[in-house]
Automatic annotation (TrEMBL):
The keyword Membrane applies. The chain crosses the membrane at residues 12-28, 48-67, 79-98, 104-128, 140-163, 169-189, 252-273, 285-302, 308-331, 343-363, 369-390. This is Enterobactin exporter EntS. One of its GO terms (cellular component) is plasma membrane. It comes from Novipirellula herctigrandis.
């Protein structure tokens, strides 16, 4: 069966195209936020705090939102979420254009964006199995990764060019506009299924979801794998604006090129991922990808040559996509439909916690040492966690 088979379904195709446009907007927005903070307050901790401000609401709210997503109409929740994100991005664009934005205002609005994303992501991922037959679920999840990483490959480069030509505000304005497509598709979705409380209180629903995640060995090991990978690997994302600006001496276009290389690597990896799963299995695929990411970080720490920097970031993009797509798809296949939002809320919480803690950790290390030392330290830690990940097996749920 072709990996593009789910796109033959009109509803899934409409959602995929709308999500692709939204992902473009999100990546352009992220480029703008990081670059804006690098100018408002260029300290490593403040630049890293942009990702922390996005992650903290997810850490605090993802699991409760997952409970709500399993109890109430997911379609309505998604519509409200898109409208919130649109208004927040438009506000940020207006304040940036008028020149009144400050570093703390940027962090506050970024936190609001994080609240919107914490509602959107677990509820959206829980809704995906409703759009495709069960036999196509793995391919649908992979197509979601392709959409995300295609946007990552192109969006940052486009964002860097637009920011350089027009100004940072354009990144936020385009992101606000990008949410419109998803709203249109959601409004036209004639959804038949309705969530139910099943006679359980909110607290009992929460307990039921957490008990499943804790007692199911595969889900438990998936969450451990997320932490083992993202905590050290986030040294790349949290400090990338400073790597471009301070370490490499590049401008906004160069920053966009760097993130674009990461996205290109992730997109390329999507084509070979099924072969890796088939040949090596999920556990060894994850460990190998983590080791490859560590190698890329080590290369980035010792060179400023554009070619080597580009190759290292492409490698890290591939490793990022392989690791997280494998873990995400395994979680989707393991969770029963009635508690999928709660389970994916746990998955998202583990990601956000690791990103937040990693941003704070590596930002602080960069403050007291240097970017080069920070990248090498993170690479060494990642090699250790890659070896440890082999102890937390997730099996071959994807076959």
């Amino acid at each position: 069966m072709s990996p593009w088979e789910p796109l033959r379904l009109p509803l899934f195709r409409a959602f995929w195209i709308a999500s692709l446009a939204s992902n473009f907007g999100t990546w352009i927005h992220e480029i703008g936020a990081g670059w804006l903070m690098a100018h408002l307050d260029p300290s490593p901790q403040m630049v890293a705090a942009v990702r922390t401000a996005m992650a903290i609401p997810i850490v605090l709210l993802a699991i409760p939102v997952g409970v709500i997503g399993d109890r109430f109409d997911r379609r309505r929740m998604l519509i409200v979420t898109q409208l919130l994100l649109c208004c927040t991005a438009a506000t940020l664009a207006t304040m940036t254009f008028s020149g009144v934005i400050t570093s703390w205002m940027l962090l506050a609005l970024t936190a609001v964006m994080g609240i919107g994303m914490v509602i959107h992501v677990p509820v959206w991922q829980a809704a995906v199995p409703e759009l495709v037959p069960k036999v196509q679920l793995t391919r649908a999840v992979a197509l979601g990764s392709i959409s995300f990483n295609l946007a990552r490959a192109v969006g940052p480069a486009v964002g860097g060019i637009l920011i350089a030509a027009v100004g940072t505000w354009i990144a936020f304005a385009l992101n606000a506009f990008s949410f419109a497509g998803i709203v249109v598709v959601l409004v036209s979705w004639k959804r038949q299924r309705r969530e139910s409380t099943r006679g359980l209180s909110f607290r009992m629903s929460l307990y039921q979801g957490l008990r499943f995640v804790v007692n199911n060995a595969v889900m438990r090991n998936v969450l451990v794998g997320v932490v083992l990978f993202i905590l050290p690997a986030n040294a790349l994302w949290s400090l990338l604006p400073l790597v471009a600006k301070a370490q490499l001496g590049w401008q906004a276009g160069g920053f966009g090129f760097l993130v674009g290389c990461v996205g290109f690597g992730a997109l390329a990896a999507a084509w070979v991922l099924p072969r890796f799963h088939s040949q090596f299995g999920a556990d060894r695929t994850i460990a190998g990808a983590m080791a490859a990411f560590a190698f890329g970080l080590a290369v980035l720490s010792v060179t400023t040559h554009a070619v080597w920097v580009g190759l290292a970031t492409i490698l890290m993009g591939s490793a990022w996509m392989i690791t997280l797509t494998t873990l995400n798809a395994t979680a989707q296949m393991t969770l029963p439909g009635r508690m999928r939002a709660r389970g994916m809320g746990c998955f998202l919480t583990s990601m956000a916690f690791s990103m937040s803690a990693g941003s704070l950790l590596w930002g602080r290390v960069a403050e007291v040492t240097s970017l080069h030392v920070t990248q090498m330290c993170a690479a060494v830690v990642l090699l250790f966690t890659a070896a440890i990940s082999l102890k937390f097996k997730i099996g071959d749920q994807l076959h």
